[in-house]
Amino acid sequence: MDRLPSSKRIIIFLFLGILVGNFFDKSYTIANLNLYTFFDVFGLVFLNALKMVVIPLIMSSLIFNISKFNDSGELSGLGLKTILFYLATSFVAISIGILVVNIIKPGLIDGIGAGNILGLDKESNIDLIISSQNEYSLGAFFLKIFSGNIFTSISSGNMLFIVLFSILIGIILRSSNSRSTDVVKDFWEGIYLVFVKIMYLILYFTPYGVFCLIAKATMNFEPESYLILSKFFVTVISALLIHVVIFYSIVLITFKVNIISHLKGISTALFVAFSTSSSVATIPVTTRCLIEKLNYKEEKVNFIIPIGATINMDGTALFECVVVIFIAQLYGVDLTVIDQFLILFLALITSVGVAGIPSASFVAIVVILGAVGLPFEAVGLILGIDRILDMLRTSVNVYGDSCCVSVVSK
Asked: Which residue in 136, 116, 288 sits closest to 197, CA to CA?
């Protein structure tokens, strides 16, 4: 059970999930067991099991691997290269999103905003998103990172705090020559090895988890919503494809990385990211793929990937800017160049603070909408098709993390 499930097996179960989801509806029961409820529960159990190991695995891997670095210059250089790579690629992703949405203009019909045609009804969970906006102001953002309570931040899954706190402990342990700290280093190494074993046990069930998550998502498919927003759907997918296929291919070729080999090696992580819609939950799979299939150094992978899952949100940042400009088009609002630069800047900042969980980007979208003076109600239009788009942009985020490991290792 110490090996990851093969990509072929995951692909088979992924397509089986699509077929089952299309064949059965949400009311179908077998022996008084509702099929949709079964898929929902098993999928959530698999997702929660992945999340269960994420925080201890991130903390132990960062602390243990940073404390192992012999050269402080190598550590600081690795961190600087990683952050610069993530910020630069996110900037490019947002720029691509803004360019594509301005070319396709999905919110306009014959040059006129299509908001009145679509209705813009308020969805039941929009109020919750809007009420959360004040919690994600710039001041609240930094206060959340430095909350002052270590245990509350860890228990609430405050990923930015966890990463920064773990890096700080790792650096201090690395710089200490006391024998007493050797015990602490051994403790974190033991924790790391234990949770790696637990992770392998959970990942054994990946194909079945993927099957249930995809079957459930397919059962929720509503053709009317997709038809109305198909132009927006195409816009987001086109921008994501340009970013992945063209931009990242140029990056990998520039650093002499074999694109086909890289894709094959990381394919399992991409399928898990697609099915779970969570960068954080995919961390264990991504690290194993890069270490075992692509043979990158374990200490570098375990340093770069947790940071990437927290601050590298290429797909999310791209999606945020496309949504905001799309909503502006629906209302017939002509955004100036300055407005679009503001959207670019806010998308870059907010994407860093977005947690690696499904649909968390909608809070950031509400923040940007408020900054440029657009109504919040239109967010409800996107929620109907967000699950599929969330799968796609999470896969882009994870692919970007893997590219960072390849580039920084070069």
From this structure: 288
CA distance 97 to 85: 18
**Cα distances (Å, whole numbers) of residue 177 to 66, 70, 149, 191, 311:** 15, 12, 28, 22, 32
Q: How many residues does the chain have?
A: 410
Residue from 195, 210, 196 nearest 46 by CA: 210
CATH H-level superfamily of 7-409 = Sodium:dicarboxylate symporter (1.10.3860.10)
pLDDT tens, 347-380? 777 666 554 444 556 667 766 776 676 776 666 5
Would you say 82 and 307 are in contact if contact means Cβ atoms under 8 Å apart?
Answer: yes
Contacts by 151-155 with C-beta closer than 8 Å and gap 24+? 154/55, 154/59
Reported pTM: 0.69
Helix axes 259-276, 7-23, angle to 10 degrees: 40
Closest by CA to 196, choosing from 58, 39, 318, is 58
Provide the residue ranges of all domains of the chain, joining segments of one domain with +.
7-409
3-state secondary structure at position 13 = helix
The tokens describing 28, both together, are 């179908």
Q: Which residues pair with 34 in a beta bridge?
A: 29
Q: How many CB atoms lie within 10 A of CB 308?
A: 27
Angle at 221 between CA 5 and CA 237, to 5 degrees: 70
Q: Render pLDDT for 62-113 as a digit per residue (tens, 0 to 9).
A: 788 777 765 555 556 777 788 888 889 989 999 999 999 999 988 777 776 6
Query: Is residue 57 a contact partner of residue 285, using CB atoms and an 8 Å limit?
Result: no
- Cβ-proximal residues to 372 (8 Å cutoff; 6+ apart), any chain: 324, 328, 335, 339, 342, 343
